[in-house]
Amino acid sequence: MSSGNPSGHNWSQKPKEEEEEDPFDQMILRTGCAPFHYAVLECMAEHQDWRKCQEQVQTFKDCMREHQKQRAEELQKRMKQHQATS
Question: Which among 8, 40, 61, 84 could bridge 56 via Cys, Cβ 3.0 to 4.6 Å?
Answer without folding.
Answer: 40
